[in-house]
C-alpha cells in the first residue's frame, strides 16, 4: 500500500510540475515551450500509478479539449473522480452541462471557489440571476478571508491566482448581461484594489519601516522558493536564517504600527470606498479617453471612458493567444520595427471613433497587457504616439489631470561605477554619464552624482529633498523574485524594490532611464510587482520607465528633449510625447550628431550598448546592435512610458 501511495505521489508531482512550467511559459507568450511542457505532462499522466484526474487535467491545460472531455467522461462515469473535481475539470473543458450536473451532486460550498465555479457555469448556461447570486457569495467569502491578511506579501500571494481576477471579471460579465455598465466598470476597479492599497497613515518612520520590512520578507521568501530545489544544505540554512530575521523585523514593525494606531492594519486590509464610474468621468479632462482592461481566461474586457461615454467591449480570446501577441510585439519592437496589426485590431480598432475625437489617452492595463506600449499601436497606419499623448495608470482611481512639475530640485544620477568583479556581465555606460551631465547643465542642478559618487548611501540620503529623481543606470528585473528587482549603483550597492518600499520620497517625478524599469512580474491576478509599483506606493507622483533595453546613445537624446519640455512647464506625458516625436524624425546620422552635441562620442556600430542585465535572450542587453536604424524604429522611441 505504501509503495503504491509513494508511486502515485511521485507521478502526481511530476505531472503537476510539468503543467506549472507549461502554464508559466504560456502566460509569458512562449507557446512552443508551453506545448512541450504540456506534452511531457500528458506522457507522465499515462504512466503506471497516475491517479485518474491527471490525464484530463494535463489535456485541459494543453487546450486539447475534445480529448480532455473524453478522458474525463470515462473517469467520472466509472466513479474514479469525485463530482467536485469533475465539475472543476468540466468547466475548464467547456462542458458546462456536464459541469452543472456534477456540481449539483457535489457537497455544499466550502470555499469561495465553489460558488465562483457555479457562477461561471450559470453564466454560460444563461442563468444570469443565479450567476449573480453565486458570484456575490463567492466575493463575500473571499473578501472576508482577505480582511484577515494584514501583511502586504500575504495579500499579494492571495491575489497571485487567476481565480481572484476571475471573481471580479465574472461579476462584471454578470453585470453587463443585466445591463449594468457602471457596475461592471466598478467591479474591474475593485479587482485592483486588493493589491494596490494606500499607504499607512502613521509616523512616517514607522510606515517606511513596515513597508521595507514587508518587501524584504517577500524578496527573501521568493528567493528561497526559487533556489530551494538546487541549493546546497548550507546555502538553504543561510536562506532560512535570513527569512527568520526578516520575519522578526516585519513582526516588530507590525507591532509598532499597531501601537501607533491600534487596529490600523486590520482596518486597512478591508477594501475602502472606491470612486465609481460616474466619479471617474467627472474627473476626466476634456479630450481624454481612458481605456481600462481586464483579461481573464478566454475573455478580454475593455471599458472606454470619456466625460460623456462609458462603453464596454468584450472580446473572446484565449489568454495564451494574447500572451503570444504581446510577446511577439515587444520582441519585434526591441529588434527594430514592429508589425502590430493583430494587437492594433484587438486593442485599438474597437475604439477608433473615440480615438479620433480624443487626443489624450490614459491606459489602465492588466496582466500581459502591462508589457504593451500602447503608444506604438497604430491607427490609420500611424503610431498613436504621433497623434495622441499617452500615459498609463495602475487603476482608474489614480487618475489626475495633467499638470507640469517643478524642475527646481533635481537629483541626477548617471553611470554609477559598480564593482566589476561582482557584475562581470555589465559594461559601463558612457551614454548614461553624457545624459546625466547634459540634463544637469540644462536644469542647473546642484546634485549630480556620477561614477563613483553614485553610491546607495549618497542617493538615498538625498531622496526626500528632491522633487525630480533621474537615474540613468543598468536595471535588473528578477522575474522569479520581483521584490529583488533593482537599479545598479556604485560599488557593491543597488537600489531594490525592497529598498524603495522603505524610503520616503519627496518626489513629484522619478525618471528611470535604465533597462526594463517599467516591467515587473505580472501576478496571476493581474497586478505587476516591480520598480514602478514601489515608487508609486512610496509617494512618487509619476514615473518615467522603460519596457525594454534602452540604447545607450539614444536614451540621452530622448531624455534631454524630455527635460527641455519639462523645464518650460509641459506636463510629463506631453513632454515625453514631444521627445518621442522628435526622435521619430531623425536619421541614423542625425542621431550621431545629436548625441555628439550633448557631449558624447558616438561608438562604432559593433560597440554600441544597451542598459540592463539578466534578461531573456531575445531582450538581452549589452549585445551588438545589428544595424543602424532610423528614429522611427520603435526600438528607439517607444520603450519609455509615463506611469501615474
Automatic annotation (TrEMBL):
Record domain CHAT: where:
341-644
Mention any Pfam family matching this sequence.
CHAT
**Region of interest called Disordered, as start-end residue ranges on this chain:** 598-619
What's this protein's name? CHAT domain-containing protein
Amino acid at each position: 500500500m505504501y509503495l503504491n501511495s509513494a508511486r502515485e505521489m511521485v507521478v502526481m508531482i511530476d505531472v503537476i510540475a510539468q503543467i506549472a512550467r507549461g502554464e508559466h511559459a504560456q502566460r509569458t507568450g512562449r507557446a512552443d515551450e508551453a506545448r512541450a511542457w504540456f506534452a511531457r505532462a500528458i506522457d507522465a499522466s499515462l504512466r503506471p500509478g497516475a491517479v485518474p484526474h491527471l490525464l484530463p487535467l494535463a489535456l485541459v491545460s494543453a487546450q486539447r479539449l475534445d480529448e480532455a472531455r473524453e478522458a474525463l467522461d470515462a473517469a467520472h462515469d466509472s466513479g474514479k473522480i469525485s463530482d467536485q473535481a469533475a465539475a472543476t475539470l468540466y468547466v475548464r473543458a467547456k462542458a458546462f452541462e456536464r459541469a452543472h450536473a456534477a456540481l449539483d451532486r457535489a457537497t455544499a460550498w466550502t470555499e469561495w471557489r465553489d460558488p465562483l465555479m457555479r457562477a461561471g457555469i450559470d453564466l454560460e448556461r444563461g442563468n444570469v440571476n443565479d450567476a449573480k447570486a453565486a458570484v456575490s457569495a463567492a466575493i463575500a467569502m473571499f473578501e472576508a478571508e482577505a480582511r484577515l491578511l494584514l501583511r502586504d506579501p500575504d495579500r499579494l500571494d492571495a491575489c497571485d491566482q487567476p481565480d481572484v481576477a476571475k471573481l471580479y471579471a465574472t461579476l462584471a460579465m454578470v453585470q453587463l448581461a443585466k445591463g449594468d455598465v457602471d457596475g461592471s466598470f466598478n467591479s474591474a476597479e475593485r479587482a485592483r484594489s486588493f493589491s494596490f492599497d494606500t499607504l499607512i497613515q502613521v509616523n512616517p518612520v514607522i510606515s517606511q519601516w513596515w513597508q521595507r520590512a514587508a518587501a524584504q520578507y517577500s524578496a527573501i521568501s521568493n528567493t528561497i522558493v526559487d533556489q530551494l530545489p538546487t541549493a546546497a544544505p548550507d546555502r538553504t540554512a543561510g536562506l532560512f536564517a535570513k527569512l527568520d530575521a526578516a520575519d522578526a523585523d516585519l513582526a516588530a514593525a507590525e507591532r509598532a504600527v499597531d501601537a501607533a494606531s491600534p487596529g490600523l492594519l486590520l482596518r486597512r486590509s478591508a477594501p475602502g470606498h472606491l470612486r465609481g464610474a460616474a466619479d471617474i468621468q467627472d474627473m476626466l479632462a476634456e479630450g481624454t479617453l481612458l481605456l481600462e482592461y481586464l483579461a481573464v481566461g478566454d475573455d478580454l474586457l475593455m471599458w472606454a471612458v470619456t466625460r460623456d461615454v462609458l462603453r464596454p467591449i468584450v472580446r473572446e480570446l484565449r489568454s495564451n493567444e494574447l500572451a503570444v501577441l504581446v510577446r511577439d510585439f515587444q520582441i519585434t519592437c526591441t529588434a527594430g520595427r514592429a508589425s502590430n496589426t493583430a494587437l492594433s485590431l484587438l486593442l485599438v480598432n474597437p475604439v477608433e471613433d473615440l480615438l479620433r475625437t480624443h487626443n489624450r489617452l490614459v491606459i489602465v492595463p492588466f496582466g500581459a497587457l502591462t508589457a504593451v506600449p500602447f503608444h506604438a499601436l497604430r491607427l490609420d497606419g500611424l503610431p498613436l504616439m504621433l497623434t495622441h499623448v499617452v500615459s498609463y495608470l495602475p487603476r482608474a482611481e489614480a487618475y489626475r489631470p495633467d499638470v507640469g512639475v517643478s524642475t527646481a530640485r533635481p537629483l541626477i544620477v548617471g553611470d554609477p561605477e559598480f564593482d566589476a568583479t561582482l557584475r562581470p556581465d555589465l559594461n559601463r555606460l558612457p551614454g548614461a554619464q553624457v545624459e546625466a551631465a547634459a540634463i544637469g547643465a540644462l536644469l542647473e542642478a546642484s546634485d549630480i552624482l556620477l561614477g563613483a559618487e553614485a553610491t546607495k548611501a549618497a542617493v538615498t540620503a538625498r531622496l526626500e529633498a528632491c522633487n525630480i529623481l533621474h537615474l540613468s543606470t543598468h536595471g535588473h528585473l528578477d522575474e522569479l523574485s520581483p521584490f529583488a528587482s533593482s537599479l545598479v549603483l556604485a560599488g557593491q550597492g543597488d537600489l531594490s524594490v525592497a529598498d524603495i518600499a522603505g524610503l520616503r520620497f519627496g518626489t513629484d517625478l522619478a525618471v528611470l532611464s535604465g533597462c526594463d524599469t517599467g516591467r515587473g512580474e505580472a501576478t496571476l491576478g493581474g497586478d505587476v510587482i516591480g520598480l514602478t509599483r514601489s515608487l508609486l506606493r512610496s509617494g512618487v507622483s509619476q514615473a518615467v520607465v522603460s519596457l525594454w533595453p534602452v540604447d545607450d546613445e539614444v536614451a540621452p537624446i530622448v531624455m534631454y528633449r524630455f527635460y527641455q519640455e519639462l523645464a518650460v512647464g509641459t506636463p510629463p506625458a506631453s513632454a515625453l510625447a514631444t521627445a518621442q516625436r522628435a526622435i521619430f524624425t531623425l536619421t541614423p546620422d542625425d542621431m550621431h550628431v545629436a548625441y555628439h552635441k550633448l557631449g558624447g562620442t558616438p561608438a562604432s556600430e559593433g560597440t554600441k550598448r544597451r542598459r540592463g542585465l539578466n534578461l531573456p535572450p531575445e531582450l538581452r542587453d549589452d549585445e551588438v546592435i545589428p544595424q543602424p536604424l532610423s528614429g522611427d524604429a520603435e526600438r528607439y522611441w517607444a520603450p519609455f512610458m509615463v506611469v501615474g
